[in-house]
Amino acid sequence: MAATEIDYKQIQKDLNSMGYNVGVTDGIPGRNTKAGIKNFFNDAGYVTPSEITYDEQSFIRGVAGFTSKPLGLMREVITRQVTVKDLSDEQLCELNLHLDLKEGFYEIKRRELGCPSGTEQILRYDGKLLHDPIELLRDFQKSQKIEIPIFDLASTNLFSDWDETKKTYHFLNPKLGGLLGRSSERVSYCADWMPQLGSVPPDPSKNLDGTGSWANDTIRDGFVICQDGINRLYLRALSKNERVATRSIQQFQNVVETWIKNDGGNNLPFRPYHSRYNRKAGKADPNFTYLITISKLMAGAELLQSQFNWTFEEKNQYAAWVKDRILQRLPVGGRIDILKKSICDLNVEKDNMNDACMNAAPFVAQGLLRAAIAGNDQELAELSYLVFKQYSSALRPDGSQAYDSIRDCYAADYTVWASEFLHDYIYLASTAGVDLWGDRFSKKHGSPKENIEYALRVVSDPNIVNEYAQDFGYPDCEENQGQIVQKMFTYPKSAFAYYFERFRPERLDDIYLEIRDNLYSYTSASGVNYEVDLVSKRPQLKEHFIKNEEGIMNQRTQLLEKAKLEKRKMLLKDKGFEIIKDKDQFKGNYKVKWYFKNAAQPGSAREYQSTDTLVLEEGLGFFKGNQKYSQPSASLRSILFVAYKNDGEIFVQGDLDLFDVGRSYPTELSGTLRISDDPEIIGIWAEGDVFELELERIN
After folding, report:
1. Which of 162, 173, 184, 385 is the most buried (most CB within 10 A)?
2. What are phi and psi of 622, to 5 degrees?
3. How would residue 1 be classed by pLDDT, with cut points 50, 70 and 90?
4. 632 cis-preceded (ω within 30 degrees of 0)
């Protein structure tokens, strides 16, 4: 297209909407317009184009259209002031163009609307980058005189024996089968929605409610849901139910192959214009949402590779695609915020944070090495090492991570999270014959081994990190007696299994003893479970467990009972129940008939399931688990938590299954012990079915 055919009036409108203030939209490419174009492309990380063609115009139009969002409408929906069902077709399509919500996705299907999501498009510009990321890393290598080890990529052999992998997963956690069936609605959504993605933007719904992240009742966008959901999808391939396992493999493979075929899953690093901080919409951010999405897809492909039955050509197509996608995430610190002198500052302040020195770096290093293994690409392996080496300049002599450890009340959590990412990279490198435990940037810096040891101390005492933590002004951070109150999630000890095997073998029992009663312990952080690959390749670890099985299992049982008791104490307190010491008018045995009915079908008849005996005494109770071959499973009924009050109020909580044995979900039931013609106890199962329990007092 000739220059005269370029719609400069539209370009001017777009630049103004993104905060570049080029003045009047007269269609004349004057000095202000040219300056705005230059600033936009430079902010996006590109050299100023010598001329404006259709490609440049389309890129400007695409970014402006994507970042000019209806924030008011988005905020009302995610904070539940308005439901998607209440929106007009036009409003629903506008919302879907700018925000991917599970509720919106299915409402559009229900109405049979043809409005696409903004993330279905591929917004990419093939101009020259201001900072070539590979050149930056090679310059870093030269300036620091870094010697790169040779990676034996052909010897990695990760999760190669599928039968052994499945056995080891279930060996390490006998309860895994019950966990795999949970959150099926979220998993189905990710399998349906993710194949259409052309681009991945940063944090679509984060802080829209003004909390800095998400309030408990705020609706999460699809990318947040599927950061966990995509892991759950590929982990379901481990199910002992062959139908579930086969379908999960097929669904996950469909996501991967559709992205390869459609050139999908691109980095879209742009956010809306923020006038208050004069933050232009054209500024390319280091996109963590993109990184975690791509990385978890790669982790799933790594686990399931033996089940895809790809041809040699298909494997090469995957390797080429994944190489391009992980390179899109370089430089680690973003296209604009280039790390000064290519080295991290051990005395960093909050205004000088850089992703190259934070948890994203070992995550990117993992991705580069996975892509290197997929394509037997030595250069990618070298780049992964250089990213790791640069990151290691952020490790203090005591092993603490200089950047993540200052992040206010999240410093402890980010410290451990970053160490998990690093630990996974260290293990992945070890499978290629490279030992990085003692690899440090200089004598003044810590090593990966020391970093993991520091993180494990933080797990034991999160306040350790307050030596470094700074006040970032986060609204949900608090202080107590001059100390920042650290927030930290629970991390599985199994995440550090390779460290224990190498340096603390006496703690290996921890990975057998820990209570992994939710799938999040498998899907958080990198989303890989290298402890499984480690145990599969170390027969002596299994032999140790089998040899000491009785003692370890007894200890595990004690820990489970202790954890169950603590959980029940908390439930009693939260629900307002207490032990009944006298005048227990409801003490005794009750015959309980279990029914269920489909709540989605009004007027549907309830179906009898089983009969059980409920024993009540001193405000607590239990089901005997009669009728073994019925549902909910007798084994699950027998471990339900039951509490009641002197006024007859009763509360039942625990995992219950329906239809498929083991496909259980956390369920709460409540009601009264005052027997009448109506069901005494009622509860709703996770998939919408209603439990009704009828009681008859025996004695």
Report:
1. 385
2. -155, 155
3. very low
4. yes
Q: How far apart are CA 234 and CA 367, in angstroms?
A: 18
Average pLDDT over residues 526-538: 90
Q: Which residues contact 260 (CB under 8 A, 6 or more apart)?
A: 317, 318, 321
d(CA 344, CA 418): 15
Q: In 10 A of CB 486, how many CB atoms?
A: 21
Backbone angles phi, psi at 267, to 5 degrees: -80, 120
Q: What residue type is 534 in one-letter code?
A: L
Q: Is the dihedral of CA 158, 227, 416, 168 positive or negative?
A: negative
Confidence band (pLDDT; 50, 70, 90) for 2? very low
For residue 496, the 8-state DSSP code is G
143 residue type, one letter: S
| One-letter amino acid for residue 306 of the chain | S
C-beta separation of 49 from 41 below 8 A? yes
Do residues 440 and 399 lie in contact, with contact meaning Cβ atoms separated by under 8 Å? no
Query: For residue 331, is the peptide bond before it cis, meaning its omega torsion is within 30 degrees of 0?
Result: yes
Q: Which amino acid is at 642?
A: V
pTM greater than 0.85: no
Query: Which amino acid does the sequence have at 410?
Result: Y
Q: Which residue has the tokens 């039951």?
A: 642
CA atoms within a 13 Å half-sphere pointing along the CA-CB vector of 414: 21
- Please tell me the number of Cα atoms within 13 Å of 541 on its side-chain side: 24
3-state secondary structure of 123: coil
Among residues 332, 538, 513, 572, the alpha carbon closest in space to that of 431 is found at 538
- Residue range 116-132, pLDDT digits in tens: 999 999 999 999 999 99
Identify the residue whose tokens are 């019925």: 630
| Matching CATH number, 148-210+218-467+477-547, of 3.65.10.10, 1.10.10.60, 1.50.10.100, 3.90.25.10 | 1.50.10.100
For 453-496, the pLDDT digits (tens) are 999 999 999 999 999 999 998 888 889 888 999 988 878 889 99
Higher pLDDT pick, 341 / 567: 341
One DSSP character per residue, 521-563 reads HHHSTTS--HHHHHHHH-HHHHHHHHHTHHHHHHHHHHHHHHH
Contact 420, 427 (CB under 8 A): no
pLDDT at 526: 81
Both tokens assigned to 265: 């899953």
Alpha-carbon distance 263 to 197, whole Å?
Answer: 10
> Cβ(444)–Cβ(397) under 8 Å?
yes
What Å distances lie between residue 626 and 34, 619, 639, 667, CA to CA? 79, 22, 12, 20
**pLDDT tens-place string over residues 160-218:** 899 999 999 998 888 888 888 777 888 999 999 999 999 999 999 988 888 777 877 88
Residue type at 441? F
8 A C-beta contact, residue 394 and residue 402: yes
Contact yes or no for 514/560 (Cβ under 8 A): no
- State the CB neighbour count (10 A cutoff) for residue 60: 26
Describe the chain by its helix, strand, coil percentages, rounded to 5. Answer: 50, 10, 40
Which pLDDT score is estimated for 204? 92
Q: How far is CA 669 from CA 501, 599, 609, 617, in A?
A: 44, 15, 16, 19
What are the residue boundaries of the structural domains of the chain, listed by start? 3-120, 148-210+218-467+477-547, 588-697
Structure-token match 């959150």, residue found: 183
What was the pLDDT predicted at 542?
79
* CB count in 10 Å sphere of residue 221: 24
